[in-house]
Amino acid sequence: MGEISSFQLGVIGALFLSVASSVSIVICNKALMSNMGFPFATTLTSWHLMVTFCTLHVAQRLNLFESKSIDMKTVMLFGILNGISIGFLNLSLGFNSIGFYQMTKLAIIPFTVLLETIFLQKQFSQKIKLSLFLLLVGVGIASVTDLQLNFVGTILSLLAIATTCVGQILTNTIQKGHNVSSTQLLYQSAPFQAAILVVSGPLMDQFLTKQNVFAFKYSPIVLAFILMSCLIAVSVNFSTFLVIGKTSPVTYQVLGHLKTCLVLAFGYTLLHDPFTERNILGILIAICGMGLYSYFCTQENKKKQSEDLSLVSQAEDKDSSPLLAGKNTGHQDKENHEANKSNKDSLV
């Protein structure tokens, strides 16, 4: 029971860290890109990953965690896939309207559920599906505005959905299959993610923004915000792997939509972004969906834990029964032997 309580506290801590760091980095990056005119999102992400790797390397050298080697081919393909998914998400944003990009992010949850059901034989109850549907409707009402379709943008969005879902499922599968922590997996894979984005980032940003990242005039305040963004990104990347490893890719996506609602609320209160009754209605529906999802997941986990404990106790009873039977049989044999002996003595 103590291990279960410790695990639940770890999950709560991971969720809180993920929400706090993600909302912080969104606000920081929005100020950097909107107010200071720094539009190079993919290049900035590559810097995030490089700083993350350097930070973890220092932590590993200080023995704050133990590095665990994973099959190089697995880590390389995993890192490259995650780097490609980031690139596709940024391209999807560049070729689509904001509304269609939000729809792309919403589609990640049902697609993840579909993939886990088909390939991992994972079962989702009707209550869980209903809560996820309510969540997606709420976020859609709150964040989706215009839906302008185009062929290239649609293809890029489909590729972004597929690579993101597979990458997040692999994050969970590799951690459990290779018995590695989120820190160990992030430390091993970050260099490959950073490498592919360092090479492709400046080219992709120039293609999307028509500006050169190396020709940008970096003022002290821009450099300060870039540094702040990179430092927050260490926490974001770490908490992402932590949440997916401790929960599931679907739970992480649900958490992501909670971040979307929080960002909308912070944008209204801190940055005075336009906010309508539709936004409020959507956020309230989404919060109801998240609450139901959390409640149903908690109930199903408790049910599963009680079933597991019941199976363990049955197995223990089964193992102990032959021993007791053996002891009773031995005791009974001893009594029979003494009885026979006494009978013989009486006959003599």
Terminal CA distance reads 63 Å
Question: What's the helix count?
Answer: 10
> Major beta sheet, specifics?
none
The overall strand count is: 0
Evaluate the radius of gyration.
27 Å
Structural class: mainly alpha
What labels would you give this structure?
globular, 348 residues, single chain, mainly alpha, disordered C terminus
Description of the structure:
With 348 residues, this protein is mainly α. 84% of the residues lie in helices and 0% in strands. It contains ten helices and no strands. Helix 8 packs antiparallel against helix 9 (249-270). The longest helix is centred in the last third of the chain and has 71 residues, at 277-347. Residues 323-329 and 339-348 have low confidence and may be disordered.
